[in-house]
Each structure stands twice: as structure tokens, then as C-alpha cells.
């Protein structure tokens, strides 16, 4: 069970909610804060005060007063009109994360919703009823309006959901779980859709998978290191302490641990004086990507506990501000793209060193019969295509902005686009690393599996259950996709890397 307070949600807790399906509940203090805040909203409505988003229209219509008897209709119209997202739906785990984040921000007690709104969100999470939310259509300021409107529709019994592996009408899933839809009242529609929960949820899933892929890249490149008989002097801690970057130091330590029992690695001068950068500079390059990951995690953990709707209520004060603007997450996800793209870039160059006979002493393209059989030749082509595609996706979304709402909303973050592209880069990078893994395992078989380190050999034995050795040419696309799925579905780092941080 994870208890939401509005202030203390962590990445580890989100990982449990998403991948271990733990239940969620609200703390008593946060529920009390929600109730107190709601009393102020009802006072504003009863008194006929003019307050943006409570008794007025939205955006450019902020100067239109809404009478008390029309407040409920205003909220429904807001949700219905704004639910115009397009494209393929977000992954179901992103939808689940959006529900959690939306409930958590309301539990801060600044949004002005009734308790029943939070309770319904928690009910959806615990019943595993996840809104079908189109992934395109958000500008990332005024919040993720279109995606969150599709989420809000489910509370009203409308739209579609994912439920027990099926996509169905919301009312059917709610009926199966005995959950009744609600009618929104003053401020609640706006509180549901004015925020950064789509980009943040997409960012959370991307980060969790990206962190795991970074650890997997260390295992996979360690096998490459053995296949190419790399020089382990480059991991000496004195080199990395001399520079001082924490993440670089940690990466080098993990490689020393992974390769400590290997009989395939070499020392300086035994075979060659120094290796190419793709081996020699692994701690520096991978360490820099870990710096990116740590930055992104910090920003996401702040945002997942943030009040990002508008207006916000603080006791008797109501402020119209701009916490819905996604710029911090837009920058973070654009930064993430660079860090993960570089893990793929350096991996593709290691693949080249594994398959190019001019750069190693292995059979050309790792072929069992060079010339008659092509071996891994075209796998390197695929890796090259994927990293090239990543370079276009890595263009920062956050440098773009298009005015909206008749220039009332004249600068936007495009953070949700950045988060979506980050996830695409991650998928491409995983396939590149899967290709490196296939090639590295084949290469090390020529050098002697019995000489591998204890850790890399255990990992290889596990991976070989998914992709067998190359004894003759076959449709390698199947192997790449199978190993990619293995890397995505199995968080292997705990089993094979052990202690991750210093």
C-alpha cells in the first residue's frame, strides 16, 4: 500500500504502483486539507464572487461571469470540449500514472475539489480501470488539457478505458466494479485538466525504463569488453577520482565489480597499449548519461508532488498563476533524450568494433561462414538507422512555441511532445543495445565462454534462453525483437549488477 499525501510521492513508490500493482490510499491529513479547501470554493459560489475558473469562463473567456445555476454545466462543457486528443493512446501504464499524479496533486489541498473526486480517482487506480488517453494534442501549457480531459471523462462515465486487458466503454468497466460516475461541480473540471500530469506521467515511465536500460547497457557492454579483450586499467578508481564526477566514479566501480573475475580482459600493454574510445571512455560517457538521469529524476519527483492547476487556493486567498506551464519538465525530457541517445550512439560504435574484421580478431561480421553467410552484417545497419533516427527525435521540443486561445496563452512548453519523443528514443536505444548484446554474446563464444566473469556469464546464460547462438543465417529481426522484449520486461540489473550505487 502506498499512502498519498500530496507531498511525499517518490519514484520508487511510483515504480511499485506501476509495476507491482500496489494499492493506494490518501492520508487523513491530506483528506482534511481537501475538505477545508473545498469550503472556500463553495463560499465563492454562494456569494457570487468573480473568481477565475470558479465563476468565470476559461482562457480567453475569463471575463465571462457564470451564474451559480450554470456552474455544473460549465464544468461538463469544459471537459467535453477539451477532450479532443488524437493519435494512438498513451501506454496503459502512463494512464495509470496520470490517475495517481492527479489524485496526489489534489491531496495538497489547493485545488478546491470535493472529497468524492479524489476518492473516485483512487477507486479507478485500485480497480485497475485506466482511461484510454490519446497521446497527441497537448501544448504543455495551460497544462495537458486534451489528455487530462480524456481522463476526466472517465469520472463522468464517458469515454473508453483499459480494463483487465481489454479496451471498452467506461460505463461497462465501472459497472463491473460497482463504481458510480459523478457530476462535476464548481472548479472541479478545471482542477482535473489544468496540470502537467500527462508529460510527467510519460516522463516517469520513460525514466524508470531508462534507468534500467542504463544498467543493462553496463552488463551488455561488459560482454563486449570481454569479446574484444578490453583493457581494464581504464576502470581504475584513481583515474575517476582525479576527475571527480560522482556518476563516472560509480560507473567505473560497477564495471570493476562486473569484470573482476573475467579471464578475457587484459591489462595495459598485454595485447595493446590502449583501446578505442568506445571501450576506454565508457565511464566518462555512461557516467555523463547518469548525470542526465539523476537530473531528470530530481525534476520529476518535484513535479509529481506539485500543485500545477489554476487557480490555487491558500486559505482565504485565491491566486491565478501559471504552475501549469510545463517548461521544467519540457527541459528535463529534452535533456533525457540526449542522455539515452548517447547510450545508443556509443553502443552502435561498439557493435561496429564487434563486426568489422579490420577492428578485431573475430570472424568477419561474426559469421559462422564468412562470405557464404552474412552473420551480423545487417544488424549493424539496423543499429545505425536507429541511432540516426534518434538524432532527429533528439531535437528539443521545448524550443518551440505556438500561441493559443486567441493569444491569451501565448507561450507554451511542448513538454508532452518532448516526453513522447523521449520514450521513442528509449525504444530505439533498447533495440540498439539488444543488437549489441546479440553480437557481444556471439563474439565472446569465439573467445571462450568459460573464461567470462561470473556476472556476465550468468547474464549471458539467461539471455541465451531468449536468443540462441548464431550457427547459421536466420531471420535476425525475430532475435532482435525477442531480446528487446526481454530487456523491457525483465528488470535484470538487481540480479546481475548487485549494488547499484556507491
TrEMBL record:
It is found in: Cytoplasm. Keywords: Cytoplasm, Histidine metabolism, Lyase. PROSITE patterns: PAL_HISTIDASE. Contains an active site 4-methylidene-imidazol-5-one (MIO), which is formed autocatalytically by cyclization and dehydration of residues Ala-Ser-Gly. GO terms for biological process: L-histidine catabolic process to glutamate and formamide; L-histidine catabolic process to glutamate and formate. Its EC number is 4.3.1.3. There is a cross-link at residues 141-143 (5-imidazolinone (Ala-Gly)). GO terms for molecular function: histidine ammonia-lyase activity. One of its GO terms (cellular component) is cytoplasm. The modification 2,3-didehydroalanine (Ser) is found at residue 142. It catalyses: L-histidine = trans-urocanate + NH4(+). Transmembrane segments: none annotated. Pathway: Amino-acid degradation; L-histidine degradation into L-glutamate; N-formimidoyl-L-glutamate from L-histidine: step 1/3. CDD domains: PAL-HAL (cd00332). HAMAP family: His_ammonia_lyase. Belongs to the PAL/histidase family. This is Histidine ammonia-lyase.
Amino acid at each position: 500500500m502506498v499512502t498519498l499525501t500530496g507531498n511525499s510521492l517518490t519514484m520508487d513508490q511510483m515504480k511499485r504502483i506501476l509495476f507491482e500493482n500496489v494499492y493506494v490510499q490518501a492520508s487523513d491529513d491530506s483528506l482534511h486539507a481537501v475538505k477545508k479547501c473545498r469550503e472556500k470554493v463553495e463560499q465563492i459560489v454562494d456569494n457570487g464572487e468573480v473568481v477565475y475558473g470558479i465563476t468565470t469562463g476559461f482562457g480567453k473567456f475569463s471575463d465571462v461571469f457564470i451564474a451559480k445555476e450554470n456552474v455544473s454545466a460549465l464544468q461538463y462543457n469544459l471537459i467535453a470540449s477539451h477532450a479532443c486528443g488524437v493519435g494512438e493512446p498513451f501506454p496503459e501504464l502512463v494512464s495509470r500514472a496520470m490517475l495517481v499524479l492527479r489524485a496526489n496533486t489534489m491531496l495538497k489541498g489547493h485545488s478546491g475539489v470535493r472529497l468524492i473526486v479524489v476518492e473516485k480517482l483512487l477507486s479507478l487506480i485500485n480497480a485497475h480501470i485506466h482511461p484510454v488517453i490519446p497521446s497527441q494534442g497537448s501544448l504543455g501549457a495551460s497544462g495537458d488539457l486534451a489528455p487530462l480531459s480524456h481522463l476526466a471523462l472517465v469520472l463522468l462515465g464517458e469515454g473508453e478505458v483499459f480494463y483487465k486487458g481489454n479496451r471498452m466503454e467506461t460505463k461497462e468497466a465501472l459497472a463491473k466494479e460497482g463504481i458510480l460516475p459523478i457530476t462535476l461541480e464548481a472548479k472541479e473540471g478545471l482542477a482535473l485538466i489544468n496540470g502537467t500530469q500527462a508529460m510527467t506521467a510519460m516522463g516517469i515511465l520513460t525514466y524508470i525504463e531508462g534507468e534500467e536500460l542504463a544498467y543493462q547497457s553496463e552488463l551488455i557492454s561488459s560482454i563486449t569488453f570481454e569479446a574484444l579483450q578490453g583493457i581494464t586499467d581504464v576502470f581504475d578508481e584513481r583515474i575517476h577520482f582525479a576527475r571527480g564526477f560522482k556518476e563516472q566514479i560509480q560507473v567505473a566501480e560497477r564495471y570493476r565489480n562486473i569484470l573482476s573475475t573475467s579471464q578475457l580482459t587484459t591489462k595495459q600493454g598485454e595485447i595493446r597499449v590502449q583501446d578505442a574510445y568506445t571501450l576506454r571512455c565508457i565511464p566518462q560517457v555512461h557516467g555523463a548519461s547518469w548525470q542526465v538521469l539523476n537530473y531528470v529524476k530530481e525534476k520529476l519527483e518535484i513535479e509529481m508532488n506539485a500543485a500545477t492547476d489554476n487557480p490555487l487556493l491558500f486559505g482565504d486567498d485565491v491566486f491565478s498563476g501559471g504552475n501549469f506551464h510545463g517548461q521544467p519538465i519540457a527541459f528535463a525530457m529534452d535533456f533525457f533524450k540526449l542522455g539515452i541517445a548517447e547510450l545508443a550512439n556509443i553502443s552502435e560504435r561498439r557493435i561496429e568494433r564487434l563486426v568489422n574484421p579490420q577492428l578485431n580478431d573475430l570472424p568477419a561480421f561474426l559469421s559462422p561462414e564468412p562470405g557464404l553467410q552474412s552473420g551480423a552484417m545487417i544488424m549493424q545497419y539496423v543499429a545505425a538507422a536507429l541511432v540516426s533516427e534518434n538524432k532527429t527525435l533528439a531535437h528539443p521540443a521545448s524550443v518551440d512555441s505556438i500561441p493559443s486561445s486567441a493569444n491569451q496563452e501565448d507561450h507554451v512548453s511542448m513538454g508532452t511532445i518532448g516526453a513522447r519523443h523521449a520514450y521513442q528514443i528509449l525504444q530505439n536505444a533498447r533495440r540498439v543495445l539488444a543488437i549489441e548484446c546479440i553480437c557481444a554474446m556471439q563474439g565472446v563464444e569465439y573467445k571462450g565462454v568459460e573464461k567470462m566473469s561470473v556476472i556476465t556469464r550468468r547474464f549471458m546464460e539467461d539471455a541465451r534462453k531468449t536468443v540462441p547462438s548464431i550457427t547459421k543465417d536466420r531471420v535476425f529481426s525475430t532475435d532482435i525483437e525477442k531480446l528487446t522484449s526481454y530487456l523491457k520486461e525483465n528488470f535484470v540489473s538487481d540480479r546481475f549488477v548487485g549494488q547499484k550505487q556507491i
